Every structure is written in structure tokens, then in C-alpha cells.
Automatic annotation (TrEMBL):
Encoding gene, per UniProt annotation: NUCB2
Record's subcellular location: Cytoplasm; Golgi apparatus; Membrane; Secreted
Polar residues: bias regions: 437-450
Composition-biased stretches (Low complexity): 391-408
Organism phylogeny: Eukaryota, Metazoa, Chordata, Craniata, Vertebrata
Superkingdom: Eukaryota
SUPFAM superfamilies in the record: EF-hand (SSF47473)
Membership in a protein family: Belongs to the nucleobindin family.
Organism encoding this protein: Varanus komodoensis
Protein name, as recorded: Nucleobindin 2
GO terms under cellular component: endoplasmic reticulum-Golgi intermediate compartment; extracellular exosome; Golgi apparatus; membrane
Main location: cytoplasm
Ranges that cross the membrane: 20-40
């Protein structure tokens, strides 16, 4: 089974977006097939029994890329081609990154190429719909077309119908760059988070009187002191830190610590590597010394930043070839260094300065500019709303004027003896002096109903006319 299909998913979702370069890009994902972990004999009587998950297929964690689904589908299709997989087994990372392996796409089966063509057409159609939606939403305020074109950096949009070697090369380069910059982006977001917290705290203090301000300041200092009062944190990746995991998490005798056995135990998916997620899991015990979700003074966002710092530090020290994977050989070499046995003390976030006063000042200026821009937009929207309301009031006034004019016309018609008209111009009743035909049936001959002077039934008038003609 491919390594990408056996990735172990941990429960902490905030770290799931950090995905290995090899496991997100097809090329790097299958590179791990070529290497195997060194067999290690483990005393099963000393190892806690773990849940068997080998037969289960675990989905890859979300990379956080906007083209994540497309990337996954391309990987799934390419892995079905035998020739391509064989080339991957002998390719190194540099050949993968420089595009040499992408040329092998020309030799894959026709069925695979056809399926890749279909995936690309679907992705192009999706991106076109996305861009159209953005253009429609910004049509009144302008749009940055260059920013929209960045949506196509992971494929060749000049040829939207067929998947070529250039498309695979662009996909590799885009995913590589995006994933390598992901940690940097997380650090920047955390710094903004910390500055925003401090900005809001200072703004709140401005709303208080002197006495309450002193109380809030005292409480703030007390919380900082309480948070900093925690057990010593072992240097990440040091012998002391790993032995603590060996003893408390693995339940093994600390005097029998063995690096090879440790590596095997924590290579959760048994692919012969410690990936970034498996490394981060090793720091849980250290983080629990500093952060507790039940404590008001402990910020869980800061805990995840601390976890990221620990993982990056170990990777920089241990990952010799910088492929974001730790092999058994790299791990063993790290345990032979002096830093492993005699590490320097580890400074946690509360012992470091995340930002300077100058950083905070620039951040507050940026916030002020954003607020001014939002205020400006709010005023423009309010102005448009008032204009629309004014137009609506004018239309309502015109409607009332028309209704009054119609009523006056109907009133004049009645005064002049004309019947009022219905909605379609029809007469609502017959003119005076004309008896409706329907009413004559209600008054048969012989009826003694009295009529007003000068009114004679039509039938009687006709009979009288005939009588006069027969008697000249």
C-alpha cells in the first residue's frame, strides 16, 4: 500500500493543514516506497498494545490548498500507471522538483492521459466559475485581475483541454512553494493574533477610570506570572525529552531507552519515516506542562504556535536532506550528537518577545486605516440607502398623485351624469331611464307594480302603437 494511503490522522484539527510535501505532491508521496525501515526486534512484553490500523485506509489530511481536491485526484490517477510508479521508485527529490520526472508523463497509458484530461477540464471550469463570481461581486468597486489569474498557477490555462507534462510540473512547483511557505504564514498570523490581543487590551484600559485600570493591570500581571509558573520544559528532540515520552507515553523502562525502538514505535504508519505530524505528537507531554485548556491564563492558540516551533527546531537539527521527513538513519545520527545529550535550555513563548512596540505601532496604524476604509464604505452604503429611500418616497408620492387625479376624474364624470368606469373602462350600471332586460323578467304582465309618472313598460308601449295603426 502506498505511503500516501496510510497517513495516520491525529485528532487535533489545527495541525491537519500542515501536510508533508511528499504526501501532497504525488512525486514526493511515492518516493517513500523506495526506502524501508530497518527491522527492529521489540520486546512485546514491554510495549503497550496498540490498536491495529494496518488494514484501514486512512484519508490524507487536507493540505489547506485551494486546489486540494484537484491535487488528490491527479495523485489517485497517476498511481494507477505502472510505468510512472516504477520511475518514481528511482527518482530523487531534485529530479522531482526540477521537472525531470514530469517528462515521464508522455509514456503513461492512454487511459490515464484521458482521465487526466478530464480532471483538468473540470478544474478549469471550476476556476472560471470562481473568477466569474468574484468579478460579479466586485463589479461596482473594481477588481484585481492579476490576483484572479493567480488561481491558475497550478495548471497551464493556455491549454484548458489536455493535461500535459507542463501541467504536472506546474502542479508540483505550486504545491511545493505553497506548502513550504505555509509555516511562515502561520507564524505571521500568530504574530498578528498576539498584537491584536494587546491592542484590544490597551484600548479597553483607556475606557476605565484610574482605579479600575490599576486593578486590570494587576490582574494581567498576575495571569502572566501564573502562566509562567510551570515545570521545566525539556529541549525538543533531546534525550531527556524522548525518554520522558518513552516512559510516560509508551510505558517503558527509562533505563532501557533505545533510539531504534523509539523510532519504530512512533513511526505510526510504518512507512519508514517520522513525518511532521508524527514529530509534533512527540511534544504533547512538554506542551501539557505549560498549557491547560481549563486555565484562564493559558491560550491554546499559543500552544499550537509552541508546537510548531518545536517541530521546526527538530526538523532543522535532524532532517539532513531537508525533505521534511526524518529517516531512521537521520534519527540515529541526531542521537549521537552532543546536543542530544547536553542540550541548551528551551525558551517557551512566554519567555520570548513575539513583537516589538514598533511592530505594534505599525499594526495599529494598519488597523486604523482599515477602520477608516470600512467607515468610508459604510458612509457610502448609507448614502446609497438614503438615495434609494428618497427615490422610493418620490415614487410613492407620484402614485398618490395619480390616484387622486383618477378619483377627481371619476367625481367629475358623476357630476356630469356619466357613469363611472370600471377598471377596464366598462360601465358599472345602465343610464337612468333604461330598464335592464334582466329586470323585465322579474315583472310579468299583470303585475300591479306602480311605475313613476311618464314611464311605460316597453311591451305596453309597443301594443299601443299597433292599436293606433289599426284604427286610423
Amino acid at each position: 500500500m502506498a505511503a500516501a494511503d496510510t497517513v495516520f490522522c491525529h485528532n487535533q484539527t489545527i495541525r491537519r493543514k500542515t501536510i508533508l510535501l511528499q504526501r501532497c505532491v504525488l512525486l514526493l508521496a511515492y518516493l517513500v516506497i523506495t526506502l524501508e525501515a530497518v527491522p527492529i526486534d521489540i520486546d512485546k512484553t514491554k510495549v503497550q498494545e496498540k490498536e491495529h490500523v494496518e488494514s484501514e485506509k486512512v484519508d490524507n489530511p487536507d493540505t489547506g490548498l485551494y486546489y486540494d481536491a484537484y491535487l488528490r485526484q491527479v495523485i489517485d490517477v497517476l498511481e494507477t500507471d505502472k510505468h510512472f510508479r516504477e520511475k518514481l521508485q528511482t527518482a530523487d527529490i531534485e529530479e522531482i522538483k526540477n521537472g525531470k520526472l514530469s517528462k515521464e508523463l508522455d509514456l503513461v497509458s492512454h487511459h490515464v492521459r484521458t482521465r487526466l484530461d478530464e480532471l483538468k477540464r473540470q478544474e478549469v471550469a471550476r476556476l472560471r466559475m470562481l473568477i466569474k463570481a468574484k468579478i460579479d461581486s466586485f463589479q461596482d468597486s473594481g477588481i484585481d485581475h492579476q490576483a484572479l489569474l493567480k488561481q491558475f498557477e497550478h495548471l497551464n490555462h493556455h491549454n484548458p483541454h489536455t493535461f500535459e507534462a507542463k501541467d504536472l510540473d506546474m502542479l508540483i512547483r505550486a504545491a511545493t512553494s505553497d506548502l513550504e511557505n505555509y509555516d511562515k504564514t502561520r507564524h505571521e498570523e500568530f504574530k498578528k493574533y498576539e498584537m491584536l490581543k494587546e491592542h484590544e487590551r490597551r484600548e479597553y484600559l483607556k475606557t476605565l477610570d484610574e482605579e479600575k485600570r490599576r486593578q486590570e493591570e494587576a490582574k494581567y500581571e498576575e495571569m502572566k506570572k501564573k502562566h509562567g509558573d510551570h515545570p521545566k520544559v525539556n529541549h525538543p528532540g533531546s534525550k531527556d525529552q524522548l525518554k520522558e515520552v518513552w516512559e510516560e507515553a509508551d510505558g517503558l523502562d527509562p533505563n532501557e531507552f533505545d533510539p531504534k525502538t523509539f523510532f519504530k514505535l512512533h513511526d505510526v504508519n510504518s512507512d519508514g519515516f517520522l513525518d511532521e505530524q508524527e514529530l509534533e505528537a512527540l511534544f504533547t507531554k512538554e506542551l501539557e506542562k505549560v498549557y491547560d485548556p481549563k486555565n484562564e491564563e493559558d491560550d491554546m492558540v499559543e500552544m499550537e504556535e509552541e508546537r510548531l516551533r518545536m517541530r521546526e527546531h527538530v526538523m532543522n537539527e535532524v532532517d539532513i536532506n531537508k525533505d521534511r521527513l526524518v529517516t531512521l538513519d537521520e534519527f540515529i545520527r541526531a542521537t549521537e550528537k552532543k546536543e542530544f545529550l547536553e542540550p541548551e535550555s528551551w525558551e517557551t513563548l512566554d519567555q520570548q518577545q513575539v513583537f516589538t512596540e514598533e511592530d505594534l505601532k505599525e499594526f495599529e496604524i494598519h488597523i486604523s486605516q482599515q477602520e477608516d476604509e470600512l467607515q468610508k464604505q459604510a458612509l457610502e452604503l448609507q448614502k446609497k440607502r438614503e438615495e434609494l429611500q428618497k427615490q422610493q418616497d418620490q415614487l410613492q408620492a407620484q402614485k398618490q398623485e395619480l390616484e387622486q387625479a383618477v378619483q377627481q376624474m371619476e367625481k367629475k364624470k358623476l357630476q356630469q351624469g356619466h357613469p363611472p368606469s370600471g377598471p377596464n373602462g366598462e360601465l358599472k350600471f345602465e343610464p337612468p331611464g333604461v330598464q335592464p332586460v334582466a329586470n323585465t323578467q322579474n315583472h310579468p304582465a299583470g303585475n300591479s307594480q306602480h311605475l313613476p309618472p311618464g314611464n311605460i313598460p316597453v311591451q305596453e308601449a309597443a301594443a299601443g302603437s299597433d292599436h293606433v295603426k289599426s284604427h286610423p
